[in-house]
Amino acid sequence: MPRLVDLPAELVQEVLSLLDPSSFYICLLTNKFLRQHALGSKNLLLHQLAQVPGDRSILPRIREDTLSLLLLFQKRAAKHLFNGVSQMTDINLWRTYPSMDRRISNILPWYDDYPCRVCGESKGDHSFTSKPSNRHVFLEVPAKNAVLQIHILKENCTGNGPFEMSYIISQESLWGHQSTTSGTRNGQSREVLQIAWQGDCPIGLCVPTPTLAILSGHSYLSEVELVIVRLHTHFGPRIQARYNIKAPAEAQAVAALAFTPEGDPTITWQCRYHCYKFVKYSSSKNLDGSHHFTRTHETMLYADDVAPDRITHVQIRRGMAIFFPRLFQMPFWVGRMHLDPMWDRMIFSRQEISMPAGVAGVTTSRQGIYLTQRHLHKLLDADMNQHELCVNAVLKLFISRDEYHMTTGGLALQGAYIVKTICASDSSCKGFDPLAATNGRLYYVYVARLADTPSLENLPTIGLKVAVSPRSYRIALAAWRTLKIYSINPKVFLSSDRSSYGSDYGNASTYCDAYPTNAWRSGYYNNYTREEEHVVLEPVALLSTGVIHAMRWINEDELWALTDEGVCQWNVGVWATDDIDYGECQQSFFGLLTVVSPHDIITKDTLDKLQANIAPDNLSKAETCVLLVHSNLCDLRFNDIFKACLRNVTKYTSKSPVKPVAGHAKESSDKECDRFPLIPPNNSSIGGSQISEMRLKTL
């Protein structure tokens, strides 16, 4: 049998032309002989380029150069996951503790996801912007324990794992002696019930630093304790407030915990009789200087003919409370503030999560899963008598398994669809919030369908997980151990150019289609299957290392997930080499966070717990032990604990002196304190309590 290298060049090129783009990409990547044959045929490269999504108008200087055509093919193939992703994906798994509570633990961005993603540029663009960042945190909550471990994602995932354990927040260490909700009662130990994260806002509309809310208590819910912690970039965690909250009498469980944009915590209680109670808590100051929470109870009742689905996640956006069910990450209920400011309540309504069947139409504003948006400024529409028109186009993902539309009773779309909603204005160019409920009636059109999704009729109890990349070029769907990713180009669906995408951005001198209905007018998706008026996007299945409980795109090529095996990373970029690696998450930590209140009664049991936190096993791995206390530093009870801790620390540290930090060092009369400079940051009043932080620098 003749070898491939012995065949004539014409036959080799014909064989290569029969390959699909993904196989052709792998051949170019792994075989120099085939790469030379590809560089020798311009027609072969043009044929393969025609099978990959992209602009059909290629510049003459690129069309006549085979090397430029080869680079263009590789770029487009990698952009649309035709680079052999199913064979070349790098998989890294770092195992965590088996006892980790995967229902609460999560991977979250340091910067908030909202304001939203924006695609495209135009004159007079009123869209929101967001600051790109790879800074993420992994919040690990051990099951049946009142401890929260905060890991920071490192830039280079080498050595002991991708995450560096930065802080351990232990509520049991010092509160067990004085809180009625702490310790062990009736054989049940205290545990973390829910956590909420509010990221750092990149443009200054929200809190300046990330905020963490920790709700802990017993599983039978008599009283719970809510702790608000701010994560300062330089000073680490700082306690903002700590409150004892009495659960409603009818409450059975804590469904969700969330923050308002103003930083106030909200708790959604799951009650009896198929209802939920939504409570917003605001900090108020008493006459004696102490603080308490004021709350407003809101009840949501399900209709008898609607099967309730358990709510597991809540988002608060601009006066709206959006509730997500367990099975779908789609808005299930929406609560809006009443227009009358004297009526401090929210009006709750069931959200329509399905779209009516048909190519296009007019509908009211719907939430969906936001992808991206674009503002087309002052377009000239020939159908409107040369009138200037501003158009806001928004892409959203809708997932539904309803056979019939809830509102009209007609047929509904089943599956996962990308829908473009268009809001036009000919009066003035105003800012557009795609998540607001006041956008009125919108024109919508289906532009794409996600094919071969995980079975929506047989979902696991943990539901369907959805993740969208920061620039909305990747969508990941996961159900149990099934993981599929999709590649899209959102700019194509939002383009206003009639001819070829990329040459026009909607300036005032070009006629543009204000209501484009086809996604392939420029020929971008000519090679894809079309159904009616939308394009069908095929997925790429990835190997899963376990049951997926949560996932998030760090960038356009890295997908991270929390599985029953640990933290898993998939790299689908051009530098992937089919490398599968297993390791252990780093268990050393950078700092320890505990709390002492001025009103605490210090006992020997408390002292033993505090000393145990800086035991030799922990201390040998720690760079910094952080002791966070409320004001009243001169209290003798605190001094006794502090000196005892220092004696314990000095047993396991070297005798090399530590240079005090200029302007922050404070001398101590205790000999063993001389080796550890006291470094308090500027005292600030947060939540009515003066808070000071001391760091014991170990060597």
Can you give a write-up of this model?
With 699 residues, the chain is mainly beta. Among the domains are: 4-83, no CATH class; 594-697, Translation Initiation Factor IF3, CATH 3.30.110. It contains 12 helices and 39 strands. Strands 20, 21, 22, 23, 24, 28 and 29 form a 7-stranded mixed β-sheet that branches. It has a 5-stranded mixed β-sheet with strand order 31-32-33-1-34, with no helix packed on it. β28 (530-531) and β29 form a beta hairpin. α2 (21-30) crosses α3 (32-39) and α4 (42-50) packs parallel to α6 (66-79). The longest helix is centred in the last third of the chain and has 15 residues, at 636-650. The protein is globular and about 90 Å long. Residues 114-132, 173-183, 497-520, 588-603, 614-639 and 641-699 have low confidence and may be disordered.
